Amino acid sequence: MHYVKRTTASLLTLSLLVVGGFALSSNQPADAKKSKKHHKHHQKNLMETLRSNPDLKTYAAWMSKSGASHYLNGKGTYTVFATSEQGYSKVPKERKDELTKDNKRLKDIMKYSMVKGNVHVADLADKRSVATVQGESLMVDSKNGADAVQVDGALLTQTDIKAANGTIHVIDFIVVPERGK
Q: What three-state secondary structure class fits 26?
């Protein structure tokens, strides 16, 4: 009888461990899913991503000043060709001042650097131009496929930076629409 009680107690303990182990392991995927959802929910949008990158601080400031930042904070998906700090340093101060004096013109310039949709560098390699939010098209030149892509002569120096609502490509100088030159 003592043997039966001991065996029953051992089996009960074992079954609790097994059932408890399944319960714990079944919670793990749900927690992992919650964690992934939580992470995705907190991914920065395009404007937040621009502001958090020190190499794009002037571009982010111009975007805010122009009033076009609402595109990048909103619900639409965009691809942005953002000028790097080095790209801005190539432009004389007088020219930069001239570009930023007229807010309508600045907004045109900033909208010219934005394309609707998510356009990755591999997609650009197959295109000759992409229509901008401003209305004109950026001319695309891709020598060696996606390895050396240019838009309006500006070289993409960093590509496919992901944000919650789009993609950022860093370029090495300011692109200005033909009507705005």
A: helix
Helices (H) and strands (E) in the chain, counts: 8, 7
- Compute the distance between CA of residue 20 and CA of residue 12 in angstroms, rounded to an integer: 12
Please list the pLDDT of the chain residue by residue as tens digits (181 residues): 544 444 444 444 444 444 444 444 444 444 444 444 444 557 899 999 999 999 999 999 999 999 999 999 978 999 999 999 999 999 999 989 988 888 999 999 999 999 999 999 999 988 999 999 999 999 999 876 667 899 999 999 999 999 999 999 999 999 999 864 4
Contact 170, 158 (CB under 8 A): yes
pTM (two decimals): 0.75
- Which residue in 163, 159, 161 sits closest to 40, CA to CA? 163
Phi, psi of 71 (to 5 degrees): -60, -40
Q: In what order do the strands lie in the sheet with 148-151?
A: 114-116, 78-83, 166-171, 154-163, 148-151, 137-143, 129-131
